[in-house]
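Morning!

As promised:
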Amino acid sequence: MSEESQEITAAILVIGDEILSGRTKDKNIGAIADVLTEIGVDLREVRIVPDVEAEIVAAVNALRARYTYLFTSGGIGPTHDDITADSVARAFGVGIDVDERARAMLLERHRPEDLNAARLRMARIPHGADLIANPISKAPGFHIGNVYVMAGVPQIMNAMLDAIRPTLTANAPVISETIEAGAIPEGNFASDLSAIAARHGNVSIGSYPSMTPEGFRNRIVVRGRDADAVEAARAAITAMLDGLRPANQR
Amino acid sequence: MSEESQEITAAILVIGDEILSGRTKDKNIGAIADVLTEIGVDLREVRIVPDVEAEIVAAVNALRARYTYLFTSGGIGPTHDDITADSVARAFGVGIDVDERARAMLLERHRPEDLNAARLRMARIPHGADLIANPISKAPGFHIGNVYVMAGVPQIMNAMLDAIRPTLTANAPVISETIEAGAIPEGNFASDLSAIAARHGNVSIGSYPSMTPEGFRNRIVVRGRDADAVEAARAAITAMLDGLRPANQR
């Protein structure tokens, strides 16, 4: 992680009042995070904002300036609260209109006489954007600059993500090793783990407790792009934990 | 929503590399959102940032300045990657030390000889903060100014949220009415719904498609603090949808 300037990074922006009210529980953040980790893009920040143009514009401009990629989810349907496309156009300072490629996609699903003004809203695409195909309900997403605008419905978002995935530039994938500390309390190994982390600066080491019916269980995760460095840290942590276990559990 | 300055608002800041890598799927955002909606606090923004002090400090200061309340989750354990307390102290420009009240709480769970340097990290509390009790594993959260710092483990976070909930100032609760549009396509009612939304400016109206095994299903949600206004919008939407349904389904 020392050559920060070469890192391929990303942010996610989830757009929608329904997530902030708790009515809908987001599933897209975790799904995008998984894909980015698989291909080796560092997800650095996530924001969730309401269906308010000024909020969307501000978040898009803050995040697209700071990270290699910005992925958005939500707000590209036909109803009045779907304002993502217009907001992204405003963030980029470009116009927006019905895009003939997008209209053609909608006509794969809808008869011409059903393509009313509301449905045509889904064909409004900022000038200069490329489309992201939607194999499920046809209304496309789009990307403009480094911003990828996707649907909020998880099944459609995942299909769009599959479509753009091969086009993304990635780092070497991050290798992740999980070490089960089991019931050893975090407080018993935290000092040793800190010392190991200090000696292995080329990996990141995290400790993650979870509550189970049997009590707390802890996992330690080593992440890095250099396989030898990850293995060295993993071995050091395993040896450290073994020293803390009762002899009959080693 | 017209008297913006009187609104009680909130943001959530989730702290942790494990959420950004996808290894852990966040459950706290939805849980906090549900509680805030129940008590009538408007959740306006969520951010997720990594275990990096500068990122945490910047997010805490941006969000605490902008909203009535900021709730954080994650990074208050005993390991080296738990840097939330120190970061919040830095954000507020105050010192941080082992807090005797917090040490006493830890001693409810740990013998004095087990209260090593790592565990004592969990008693490090920014100067001027009040503690938030942790009935599960004793290590407390804290609040300072308008910032509430809670654990990342969902069971503990929920217990802390229960503890602080009665202390929060809230608006009149938001009333929410859900109208099932069923299989009527969004594109068939979007224009009418937009007109209804324009006539009912004192409520917010959202349309939420979801994919089911039987195809898309749509729900319309009306939210507002004035019961009569919510009911008026609900009645208008129901009448509009009835006009779109085949006669035998009305």
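Residues 78 and 121 of chain A are 6 Å apart (CA to CA).

Hope this helps with the figure draft.
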